[in-house]
Amino acid sequence: MIKPIAIHLPQYYPFPENDEWWGKGFTEWTNVAKAKPLFKGHYQPHLPADLGFYDLRLEEARIAQAEMAKQYGIHGFCYYHYWFNGKRLLNAPVDAILQSGKPDFPFMLCWANENWTRRWDGADQQVLIKQNYSAEDDLKHIGFLMENFFGDKRYIRVDNKPFIIIYKPGNFPDIKKTLITWRSEAIKAGIELHIGFMKTSEYNELEGMSSGFDCVIDFQPNWNFNAIVKTPYLYKLKNKLRLGKSIYHLNDIYSYPKYVNEIIKHKADPTPGNYPGITPGWDNSPRKKKRAAIFDGSTPDEYGRWLKHIADRYKGHDTYLFINAWNEWAEGNHLEPDAKWGKQYLEQTAKILKDA
User: Fold this and answer.
1) What is the pLDDT of residues 47-80, one digit of tens each?
2) pTM of the model
3) Could you state, in order of their start, the residue ranges of all structural domains in the chain?
4) What contacts 60, CB < 8 A, 6 or more positions away?
5) What is the topology classification, in CATH, of domain 2-353?
6) Among candidates 195, 211, 83, 186, which has minimal Cα distance to 137?
7) What is the distance between the alpha carbons of residues 254 and 256, in angstroms, rounded to a whole number?
8) Exposed/middle/buried for residue 253 (C-beta within 10 Å: 0-12, 13-18, 19+)
């Protein structure tokens, strides 16, 4: 059985740090609403339909998301967890979910362990808040997670082990040591952990599994800009589209259908501890002034074609499928209904995975 988990971005409410860094009242909707098409046929802006421009401080908004996800067969949400040596950001929605017990919908966490910089406006080197790793922080962090999250009846488990993901293990000075600390502290509390990582162009399966992880998630799209000619996954649109106008030299434009074609050529058999991934699209031009990455040609049918490939490959296997994402509106990858396609991505998800 395939259990789809949709990755969930909680950045849809204002809070003091974003007010300071990006301007009073900033939320993810700020970038979404001001987006403009950059070339003929470019689908922007992506505007929400059924759920509207919601505020995740509102219980009604959180419940509406979960009810919609449940209706279309989504097993649960994977919330991004922002932890910086005990300081948390974007935590108000998930804290409210813990405190209220609503919605009654499975969830888990992915520690988004990156520095926060001004990369959205091109100043990648300006660090707003930094990740500092230490043995002391490892202890503090796992203690916090056990005390506040892992005991919740809604928290997603694998073989009764709380499931947590680390987004970028390669950022750690010694990820093996961190995993050993987390596991030993959890065992003291009578808990075993199921710890996964996101396979990206920066950190591969071999590195992760040899470091002591239990599983690997195929985080999509799997960008690899440094090996763009060699990789079978990424294909730029015809060069003629990029000539004559500077905009095509400022952004990387890829064909979603061609990407799906290459994915489908990959016939490797499913293996334990490898969880597939998929994305309904990608376009982070609302966030970036230049060097945006844009998938052109994403449609519900093309997404469905990719999803069916996964369903066929994993037929008869118990696995989680990670969908990137439920609501990354400023990166153009969202299952939530929009003004152009409505609920079609959700409908494809429900239809194809119904009996998978």
Assistant:
1) 999 999 999 999 999 999 999 999 999 999 999 9
2) 0.92
3) 2-353
4) none
5) TIM Barrel (3.20.20)
6) 83
7) 6
8) buried
